[in-house]
Specification:
By secondary structure, the chain is α/β, with parallel strands linked by helices. The protein is built from ten helices and six strands, in the order E-H-E-H-E-H-E-H-E-H-E-H-H-H-H-H. Strands 2-1-3-4-5-6 form a six-stranded parallel beta sheet, sandwiched between helices. Helix 3 (about 65-70) packs parallel to helix 4 (about 90-95). It is globular, with a radius of gyration of 17 Å.
């Protein structure tokens, strides 16, 4: 399967570098480049990418606003935020707006490529170096915007196990190995968890698990 990617960053040199890295892979195709959020939304509507690599700080419409607008698309692309260590509040807002995960801008090329494949497969992407600090700062506020706190009593024991492992950033393959089941079974459990708890995606599942105390950030 070929993954189509739109790159959105206000620095032309960054966009060129990302394109070169991605187009060197046979299974990834760059369908466009945008210099700001407005252009990113317009190009996404035209090209219908699977993934948008989104910078947070761009002139005019920034990465958060663009992510929110992309989330309203009928065919919604997955958004991977490119962030630095000093952008916690913007990153938090982007996750609330519908981003499917984030990467640090100093991520190595091979890790970037693998991240795109992970998100394209439907999994969340939360950079370990940032996730704990982000959750420490915002865990009390990161709640699904839909309503009251979901009741975990609606989940089976196995679904609670899967949710706990999702919150620990385990992939479907890792969960399958841990629970000695197939990846297909894990995917079914994940779908059931999201449906029962009224969550949009795995990112919301992660932050919800921290928010209700199912798992907690490890002490520094």
């Amino acid at each position: 399967m070929t993954v189509s990617v739109l790159v959105a960053d206000d620095q032309a040199l960054v966009r060129t570098g990302l394109r070169m890295i991605l187009e060197a892979r046979a299974d990834i195709r760059v369908v466009g480049e945008a210099g700001d959020g407005e252009e990113a939304v317009r190009l996404a509507a035209q090209t219908l990418p699977d993934i948008v690599l989104m910078d947070l700080r761009m002139p005019g419409v920034d990465g958060v606003q663009a992510t929110q607008r992309l989330s309203a698309f009928q065919r919604r692309p997955s958004v991977i935020i490119l962030t630095t260590f000093d952008e916690d509040e913007l990153l938090y807002a982007a996750l609330r707006a519908g981003a499917g995960g984030f990467l640090l801008k100093d991520t190595r090329p091979a890790e970037l490529v693998e991240a795109i494949r992970v998100v394209a497969s439907g999994e969340a992407l939360l950079a370990p170096r940032v996730t704990r600090r982000l959750l420490d700062r915002f865990v009390a506020d990161i709640r699904p915007v839909t309503a009251a706190m979901p009741d975990l009593a609606d989940l089976t024991n196995r679904e609670v196990e899967v949710l706990t492992l999702i919150a620990q950033a385990a992939s479907n393959a890792e969960i399958a190995a841990k629970l000695v089941v197939t990846e297909g079974t894990v995917k079914s459990h994940v779908s059931a968890i999201l449906r029962k708890l009224g969550l949009r995606d795995r990112v919301q599942a992660v932050v919800l698990a921290y928010d209700i105390g199912l798992v907690r950030p490890r002490p520094s």
